[in-house]
Specification:
This protein is about 60% helix and about 5% strand. By secondary structure, the protein is mainly alpha-helical. The chain starts with 5 loop residues before the first helix and ends in a 9-residue tail after the last helix.
Length: about 270
């Protein structure tokens, strides 16, 4: 019996992509537009300006922005069929360039990211993006994908051990199984994450518009992150779209929001 190659195993795991997908229609992105956008973000990221504020100022800005977005969110929550439309947003004084959404509608934003942002519109884009993950129920999706990926990884490892007549010590069998399940879980998460990020950006654009923020000003955050990251293209195992791709998608989202009569995203 032949053992499936690693590449075939990866392909099998990526079939998870058929289990779910974007709930809302995402703008189509052309490679030509991405190439043009890549030219605008080249350069030394260390030269990015930092806007110094006290932690108290950051906390006040995060609170004010979160309150304004929360007031604009209920219509989108109802549309996305999200029952809990209350979000807890907290500020971390760590220097990491990061923000993330967790279970229980919690959001954390870091000083390291906020100090690269100049305007309240940019602050709002960061928080609205994380709210977008909650609106699209990405956390539940990711947990499900990781579980399915781990199961498939375990099945592949078990088949390999049977085919090889694997008879070494039990702990070695166990280690092989655990490693395969961990790999499967990781790929299960990555199989959707770029799509999830784009969907969260799209929902953020609608939320920001409803809250009265300037979408063009807000979009500078994606240019900043593109310069920090330095990637100009996305690979299969990247967890986020590359910066230029994200910038193009944001401009298309702006056009979609401005043309929308309902100020609600189109469902797939």
């Amino acid at each position: 019996m032949k053992i499936a190659s690693f590449g075939a195993a990866i392909a099998a795991l990526l079939l998870l992509g058929g289990c779910s997908g974007a709930q809302f229609r995402l703008p189509d992105i052309s490679s030509a537009d991405v190439d043009r956008a890549a030219l605008t973000v080249s350069g030394d990221s260390s030269r990015l300006e930092k806007f110094q504020r006290t932690d108290a100022q950051y906390r006040t800005m995060v609170f004010d922005v979160s309150h304004r977005l929360a007031e604009a969110a209920p219509a989108l929550c109802r549309y996305a069929e999200v029952s809990n439309c209350r979000f807890s947003v907290s500020f971390s004084s760590e220097d990491e360039v990061n923000a993330y959404a967790t279970a229980n509608n919690e959001i954390v934003v870091y000083r390291g990211l906020l100090e690269l942002l100049e305007t309240e519109d940019e602050f709002a884009a960061v928080i609205a993006h994380e709210i977008g993950h909650h609106l699209a129920q990405h956390i539940d999706e990711t947990q499900t994908n990781a579980t399915i990926g781990a199961i498939i990884g375990g099945v592949l490892a078990g088949g390999a051990m049977i085919a090889l007549g694997y008879d070494s010590a039990y702990y070695q069998n166990q280690k092989m199984m655990e490693d395969s399940m961990n790999l499967g879980a990781s790929i299960g998460v990555l199989s959707y994450s770029k799509e999830q990020e784009r969907e969260a950006d799209l929902l953020a654009a609608y939320l920001l518009d409803r809250a009265g923020y300037d979408l063009h000003e807000a979009g500078r955050v994606w240019e900043v992150l593109a310069k920090v990251n330095g990637r100009t293209s996305s690979g299969m195992l990247d967890s986020h779209p590359a910066g230029p791709e994200r910038m193009v998608a944001w401009n298309l989202a702006i056009a979609e929001v401005e043309a929308s009569k309902t100020k609600l995203p189109v469902t797939d």
